[in-house]
Each structure stands twice: as C-alpha cells, then as structure tokens.
Design brief:
Layout lengths: L5 E2 L10 H9 L11 H14 L3 E5 L2 H12 L5 E5 L3 H4 L4 H6 L2 E5 L9 H7 L10 E7 L12 H13 L3 E5 L3 H8 L4 H4 L4 E5 L10 E5 L1 H13 L8 H13 L4 H16 L4 E3 L8 E6 L4 H11 L1 E2 L1 E3 L2 E5 L6 H14 L4
Bound molecules: pyridoxal-5'-phosphate.
Length: 345
C-alpha cells in the first residue's frame, strides 16, 4: 500500500487529537451571543490568566483576530507600523486598509525578524495636520518568514518602551506565540507582558480544527467584542470549538518542543546534502527554510511532492513545518526521500 505523503507545508494541516474530539463531543454549550456558553467562558478565562491579561475573546481565525485588534486600537486614517515580511502586511488581503481605513507603514524586517528600534522611532509621527496619526506597532512572534525565529523578551521590552513613551500601542500577532515561548524556554508572560494586546492561534501547532484568541485589557476587550460582532465573528454554541482549545492549552503546549526537535532533525538531514542551502542550520522553532541551489523552488517542490514529501514554496525558499502528527520516524523517512530526490545514497 502506498503511504500518504508527509505533509510539511504548514502546522495548519494538523488534525484534532482524540482527546479534543472527545472534549468537543462532551462540551457544555450555550449561546455565546448572550455570553451563556460556559466552555467558551472557561477557555477565555484560562487564556487571559495564562498570558497575564485581563480578558480574552475567541475568534474564528487569526486573520480576523488581527483585524479585530487593529479596529479596536485604530480609527480610520490612522497609521500602523509593521514589518513588511509579516502575515499582517502580506497575507491578510489588505484587511486593515480595506475594512478599517487603516494606513500600513511597512518597515523592513531584519534577518532575525525584528524591526530596528531606530527605524521604529523615526517612523512614529509627530503631531501635525499633514500626517496620519501613528496608533500602533505590530510585531510577529515567532516571525514566520525569518524562519520561525522568536523575538526575545528583551527586544519586545525595548519596542514597548519606545511605543509607550510616544503614546503608541504595541500589538503582537502571536499566531505561533507558544512556539516562541517554548523555543526561548521562557514563560509566555515574559513575552506578553511587553505588549498591550495580542492574539494567538489554536489552529496551528496547537492542532485545533478552528480558532484564535485576542487578549488585552478589559477596556480593550470590551471594544473588541463590538468589532468582532461587526465583522460577523460572534458565534453561538462556540464551546464546541473552545473545548478543543482547552485541551490544547492543557496538553499541546509543552509538546511543541518535540516539533522543534524534529525541525532540528530535519535541518541536520538537509545540511549535508550537496546543493542544498538552509536559511538556518539549526532552527529555533518548528519552521525550516531551505532551497536547492540553481533550481526553481516550484520545480523542487513538485519533485519532492512526487517522491512523497509536501513542502510550501515561499518566495525564494521552500518551507517545511514540523507539527503534531509528524513524529521523528517520519522526519527520518522524509530525509531519506530528500536524499533520493538529490541522488545521495
Ligand atoms: C496563520 C497566521 C495568521 C492568520 O491566521 P488564520 O487563522 O490562518 O487566519 C496570522 N499571522 C500569522 C503570523 C500566521 O502565521
């Protein structure tokens, strides 16, 4: 029998664990439009406490979570500073402009995913009728395109100090926030304490079928609820989603270390292959970027897929993401497939 391909395109391909399916089946439900879904309430309290914020609200997607947060922080015609190599700038269909009338000022990301503090300082506008008002700085942690590198608490603290001193909010797109915390071996609060508001996704490495969550101060969340309603993101018996997310909070965070070890294992296997270039010889979290020199990435991706490994072309690189459902034996098998594609015995 032919084996299914090893799917390393993204950690979004993860399927819910048996414990999640059971929790979803048994979840106590109510109408969350009336604030009556006890499972949603339990999740939101659990998450707010875990990240050290007053409150949290469940959203259908990470993209909507980011949009809810920005609509809460910024009025029309305001400006946000963000990295040009980030999801919010590249892959959210221009939502902040299209829906919110918010003006993005994309700044270059350094190879480690940071934006230089000098550049941020220089781009926060002075009050002047000619200028849009700078309302927020957005960071992405881990930063996908830099190769899943986590931004350190020290860096986050320095951006926060700069932002606060100029009356600008710091918002974190933490789609893979727990990969950052586990990768840095710090409590997640060492990261989240340095932002005014944040979101993270349950539907990536945490393996839930659906869902993200926005967290912040009580005043921020009170307004975010209105924005979520306006965008159509208020759900009814959403406890069915929240139940899986509760299991994720309890059981799927510490195991991210396994994904990070598997990413390192994969990188080690790729490192010695002739003609293969890695963005980072030892990845910090669950993302590996690589490419075959002198070969088009789309062509390489097709060859790998035909041989049984799925990867995702992203610009000049191929991305492989390790995740729940892919164990070290499959990584070893993937490396064998890579070797055969590059004719290395
Ligand atoms: C996946 C992702 C999002 C968007 O999440 P969706 O649930 O796919 O809408 C936002 N930011 C980053 C960094 C992501 O990786």
């Amino acid at each position: 029998m032919e084996r299914p391909p090893i799917d390393l395109r993204s950690d979004t391909v993860t399927l819910p664990s048996p414990a999640m399916r059971k929790a979803m089946y048994e979840a106590e439900l109510g109408d969350d439009g009336y604030g009556e879904d006890k499972t949603v309430a339990r999740l939101q309290e659990m998450v707010a406490e875990r990240v050290g914020k007053d409150a949290a609200i469940l959203t259908p997607s990470g993209c909507m979570a980011n949009l809810i947060a920005l609509l809460t922080l910024c009025e029309r015609g305001c400006e946000v500073l963000l990295g040009r190599d980030t999801d919010m700038y590249l892959w959210e269909a221009g939502a902040m402009s299209a829906v919110g009338g918010i003006y993005p000022n994309p700044l270059p990301n350094e190879p480690d995913g940071t934006i230089s503090l000098e550049l941020l300082k220089a781009n926060i506008r002075q009050p002047d009728v000619h200028f849009p008002r700078t309302r927020a700085i957005c960071l992405e942690n881990t930063n996908n395109l830099s190769g899943g590198l986590p931004l350190t608490p020290t860096y986050m603290a320095s951006v926060h100090a700069t932002a606060s001193s100029r009356g600008v909010a710091l918002y974190l797109d933490g789609a893979r926030l727990f990969n950052a915390a586990v990768g840095l071996k710090v409590d997640v609060r060492e990261i989240t304490t340095h932002v005014d508001a944040l979101m993270f996704c349950f539907s990536k490495g945490l393996s839930c079928p659906v869902g993200s969550i926005v967290c912040g101060s009580q005043a921020f969340i009170d307004e975010a609820l209105r924005q979520r309603k306006m965008l159509g993101g208020q759900m009814r018996q959403a406890g069915i989603i929240a139940a899986a997310a509760i299991v994720a909070m309890q059981e799927m965070i510490d195991r991210l270390e396994e994904d990070h070890e598997n990413a390192r294992l994969l990188a080690e296997g790729l490192r010695d292959l002739p003609g293969i270039e890695l963005k980072h010889t030892s990845p910090s979290t669950n993302i590996v970027f690589f490419r075959a020199r002198a070969k088009d990435v789309n062509e390489t991706s097709r060859e790998l897929e035909a041989a049984g490994v799925r990867t995702l072309p992203m610009g000049e690189w191929l991305r492989a993401v390790t995740h729940y459902g892919i164990d070290s034996r499959e990584i070893v098998r993937a490396v064998k497939i890579f070797r055969s594609v590059w004719s290395v015995p």
